[in-house]
Amino acid sequence: AWENIFHKLSFLLIPLLFLITNHNYLNAKFLRGFFYALIVACDVLFLIYVCSSFWKIITDSEVHINHLFAHHKIIKHHTYYAMYLNLALVFIYNELSTLWKEIRPWVRKGLIASAVALVLLVVFILSRTGILCLGLLIIWAFYDIIILQKKKRLGLIALGITLLIAIGAYFGMDKKYRR
Question: Residues near 63 by Cβ (< 8 Å), separated by ≥ 6?
Fold first, then answer.
């Protein structure tokens, strides 16, 4: 299992490098367009997953909720898909944390809703590596908010909400996926 995690660690390190390095050498307009296209593509796949899962629930009475996302036929490699979702989450965090005041309120709300949907999807597709990387990204975000930006109150509120969601997700999962 650790060998698998080390192989996938580059999927976490590359987005973090984008987050902490200066990317003036690239055209900022192009990069933001690329980031938003990735976010929209991940959101569209989230909607496809949700719609097809509700269809499975309606048509098949024997379906367990955990199997709806984990064994979907649209994406064959759930770990890679989870890493793309984590990459989109890094871009959303970067956009919200650096340009909060410059972003229009409706875009800000859309990015927050997208982040919530993508976090839920990372948990629902049951990729252990994706969930581990999501946990590391959340730890990085708390470090950035509390230590680097010195917004302790916001960080503690976000930490409380995150812990409630994590506990709910853990107890909502089937026992065989909790390991």
Answer: 56, 57
Tokens of 97: 């944390």
The answer to whether 65 touches 171, Cβ cutoff 8 Å, is: no
Round to whole Å and give the CA distance between 163 and 166. 5
Residue-wise pLDDT for 41-99, tens only, equals 999 988 888 787 777 777 776 665 555 565 566 667 788 888 999 999 999 988 888 87
The DSSP code for 144 is: I
Q: Are 46 and 117 in contact (CB under 8 A)?
A: yes
Asked whether residue 19 carries a pLDDT value surpassing 60, the answer given is yes
DSSP label at residue 174: -
Q: In this structure, how many other beta carbons lie within 10 angstroms of the beta carbon of residue 116?
A: 11
CB atoms within 10 A of CB 39: 22
Position 41 scores a pLDDT of 92
DSSP letter for 175, please. G
Helix, strand, coil percent content, the chain, rounded in steps of 5 = 80, 0, 20
Q: Are 131 and 122 contacting, i.e. CB atoms less than 8 angstroms apart?
A: yes
The pLDDT of residue 86 is 92
